[in-house]
From TrEMBL:
CDD domains: crotonase-like. It holds the Pfam family ECH_1. Belongs to the enoyl-CoA hydratase/isomerase family. The keyword Acyltransferase does not apply. It comes from Tistlia consotensis USBA 355. This is 2-(1,2-epoxy-1,2-dihydrophenyl)acetyl-CoA isomerase.
Length: 262
């Protein structure tokens, strides 16, 4: 850990743990170091009885733009598949760790949630988002296979046909539609986002802590967790099958070129 700054900040106050993605210069895009820091922070909370709720937030204009395409693109051919295996594997473990926390999890979302970062939001119990927030896959424009629960978790939430439509058309889902679909709990202006979350935390504080934990635990049965884990691993294997294809290399270059031109 020495020699680099942490890419996730953890603060504890009043029984609430706040985990903040802190790579705003790259829109909190996912790299191994960020996921290592996030997973370590989550695991540290699992057996912490003084923490009654967890808030997952992000620094800057974006919640997270998913896997850092530049980091993928810059990998030499002989290392690309190993890099992808490690990154998607870390993401899967992080999603499952969030789902497995005994405490309620609240996601604070602003700006884009793209690619695999969707899984961090899907793992939350409550989601507060600004009107400018949106969700988008981008897999078909780059050539990656879906990860982060786009096939393993999302169809259960919004239905298989709607998931197909969004992915195949690479359609952006705005905050209002995301609320209608059940991806977001409340859409509030940026200045009211923290007040909304504070209201939820006040409600949670009035409940019996053991009851909250029992409710969350009962919703993640062993069978459901096993199904999620199997689905996420299937995503990882599909991702690895696609990532090193020449057309995916070309797709990454086009994507990065379009971003630079924009």
């Amino acid at each position: 850990m020495s020699g680099r700054r942490r890419l996730v900040r953890t603060t504890l106050a009043g029984g609430v743990a706040r985990l903040t993605l802190d790579r705003p210069e790259r829109h909190n895009s996912l790299v191994p170091e960020l996921l290592d820091d996030l997973l370590a922070a989550i695991e540290a909370l699992a057996d912490e009885p003084s923490v009654r709720a967890v808030v997952l937030a992000a620094e800057g204009r974006s919640f997270s733009t998913g896997g850092d395409v530049r980091a993928f693109h810059d990998q030499p051919d002989e290392r690309l598949r190993d890099y992808a295996a490690g990154l998607v594997g870390r993401l899967n473990r992080t999603i499952l760790a969030l789902l497995g926390l005994p405490q309620p999890v609240i996601a604070r979302v602003q700006g884009p949630v793209t690619g695999g970062s969707l899984g961090l939001v899907l793992a939350a119990d409550l989601v507060a988002a600004t009107p400018e927030a949106f969700f988008a896959p981008y897999y078909v424009t780059v050539g990656f296979a879906p990860d982060g629960g786009w096939s393993a978790l999302l169809p259960e939430r919004i239905g298989l046909q709607r998931t197909r439509e969004i992915q195949l058309l690479n359609r952006r889902v705005g905050a209002a539609e995301a609320r209608a679909l059940g991806l977001v709990t409340e859409v509030v202006e940026a200045g009211a986002l923290d007040a909304c979350i504070a209201g939820w935390l006040a409600i949670l504080e009035g409940h019996v802590a053991s009851g909250l934990r029992a409710a969350r635990r009962s919703l993640l049965t062993d069978a459901r967790r096993a199904a999620y884990a199997a689905g996420l691993e299937a995503e990882r294997q599909a991702f690895l099958a696609e990532v090193a294809r020449p057309e995916t290399r070309r797709g990454m270059a086009r994507f990065l070129g379009a971003r630079a031109a924009g």
